[in-house]
Amino acid sequence: MKISVLVYDLSTNSIVRTYPIVRVLQRRHEVEVIGPVFGEGVFPPYAGEFDYRTVRGRSMPLFALPCREMLRKITGDVVYAFKPKATSYGVGFLKKVMDRKPVVLDVEDWEISSWYHPYSRRSFVLSMLSLWKPNSLQYLLLMHFLAKLADDVTVVSSFLQKRYGGSILPHGADTGYFDPARYDREEMRSKLGIGDGKIILFSGTARPMKGIEHILEALRMAGRDDIRLLMVGDIGGGYLRSLQGKYGSMLMHAGKRPHSEMPSFLAAADMVVLPQRRTPYNEAQVPGKIFEALAMGKPVIGSSVSDIPGILDECGIVVEPDDTRALAEAIMHVAGNDGEARRMGAKARKKCVSHYSWDAMERILAEVFGKFE
Question: How do residues 28-79 score in pLDDT, each as one tens digit?
């Protein structure tokens, strides 16, 4: 069976969720990855991973042109649309209506949360008036209501399952590639130019809601100048300068790096900290980086948000969101107990292999797509 995967914007980090799922699907099926590019080329960390079938992104009403081109490029027996957005699920839904192709929808975020819980009235109003943007709020709302017409749904969290139904499909990690036995911590530190001391790793697109300042404030409270935060990924220049000006040498930034290098950074790190804040958006989301950290046998400290407590049960530490003192104590506990940190990492690795590996994902995807064969 051939599956046509639709991504709403291949120039953004939207491919992060799609990547492991496509790799797993390729074990049993032929897969094509299709989507518009609104920026400058495919998202760099994943640019060389697939033979993408791209179209040029356009504003409304000119998006009708790339939409028609995407419809022509869809040659699969089943369409798998990532995110309920006009430029992915909207195109897939048109294919369903026109050619009776079954459509499976994947939902990883609750992006219409701003409709119910607007963070900024000004940004909410501007979004509602941005009719020329194919993925602005009013089109998201339409896709949300059309989601019930999908032939099946996969979601990333129990929060989203309650709203969209379907099966929970974790991001998952390639536990063969993300395997601590393949990497030497000291060698990786030497290659990356990391000195002595403990390293907390944060990877991905840096935004204030992800609690980066919460980590740095916890380090300041702990008074440990031998523990530093290493950030890998996209971070705006203004935000980075603000953090560097406020926290100085407590923070290191490695810039954007290919996803293939992530095992090296994880091998060099001592722990991963994910202090998600309790917002409607975060309650629906599960950071994919948590599974790669577990696969690499790293102690993970996370907030009691979304499904994180269940994921870290017996293999990590969970603290309340925005509790800086509890976060500082958790970081110091991991940093000061090497033996326990290793035992925690071993449990994390074991749990990831059994519950969050690509093999585990394959079992779920086989059940979802098996009904269309």
Answer: 999 999 999 998 899 988 888 999 999 999 988 888 999 999 999 999 999 9
At residue 27, the 3 state secondary structure works out as coil
d(CA 27, CA 296): 23
- The C-alpha atoms of residue 305 and residue 279 are separated, in whole angstroms, by 9
Condensed to tens digits (0 to 9), the pLDDT of residues 75-112 reads 999 999 999 999 999 999 999 999 999 999 999 998 87
- Classify domain 180-355 by CATH architecture: 3-Layer(aba) Sandwich (3.40)
Predicted structure pTM score = 0.88
Buried/exposed 96-119: b ≥16 CB within 10 Å, e otherwise: beeeebbbbbbbbbbbbbbbeeee
Q: What is the DSSP letter of 50?
A: S
Choices 3.40.50.2000, 3.40.50.720, 3.40.50.1820, 3.40.50.150: CATH for 2-172+358-370: 3.40.50.2000
pLDDT in tens, 117-164: 444 556 656 666 667 788 877 888 899 999 999 999 999 999 999 999
- How many angstroms separate the Cα of 188 from the Cα of each of 35, 253, 267, 295, 324? 36, 16, 7, 17, 30
DSSP code for 90: I
CA 282 to CA 116: how far, in whole Å?
Answer: 14
Question: How much is the pLDDT for 99?
Answer: 96
Length of the chain counted residue by residue: 373
Instruction: Give the chain's radius of gyration (CA, Å).
Output: 21
Both structure tokens of 336: 């000061």
